[in-house]
Amino acid sequence: MDIQETAAGPVEVWTPEEVATAKARNEIVLIDVRTPQEYMFEHIEGALLLPMAFFDPAALPSQEGKRIVLYCGSSMRSGKMAEKTRAAGVDKIAHLQGGFGKWKEAKQPYMGTDMSTGAPKKVTG
């Protein structure tokens, strides 16, 4: 885990492997801040959707027992939303380093779309 210094304070930056391990242990709440269209096409299985356009730190679940980790396509939007969350007074927030692109590059599993049927399908590394 790295720390990203922002104007609002430090934000944790987790690698895909760190997120995958914590997710497997049920230690995190993973939140996708991309658009609904991006999420519907492909996303990390089990991730909640809270699009950046509607992002309100007050709407985030409690972090009692589970850390919140945000992600987007490249980590630009999730970094901005993590900083917004810090500015709203949340002292600990994390986001996925390199976003969903890095997640796929690291061969982590995700939900995709079967292009022949339009149905969701599990994609493994």
Automatic annotation (TrEMBL):
UniProt cross-references to PROSITE patterns, sorted A to Z: RHODANESE_3 (PS50206)
Keywords: Transferase
Presence of the UniProt keyword Transferase in the record: yes
Any one GO MF annotation of this record: thiosulfate-cyanide sulfurtransferase activity
Alphabetized SMART domains for the sequence: RHOD
Domain Rhodanese: 24-112
CDD domains (UniProt xref): RHOD
Pfam annotation, one family: Rhodanese
InterPro entries: Rhodanese-like_dom, Rhodanese-like_dom_sf
Gene3D superfamilies: Rhodanese-like domain (3.40.250.10)
UniProt name for this protein: Rhodanese-related sulfurtransferase
Species of provenance: Pseudooceanicola nitratireducens
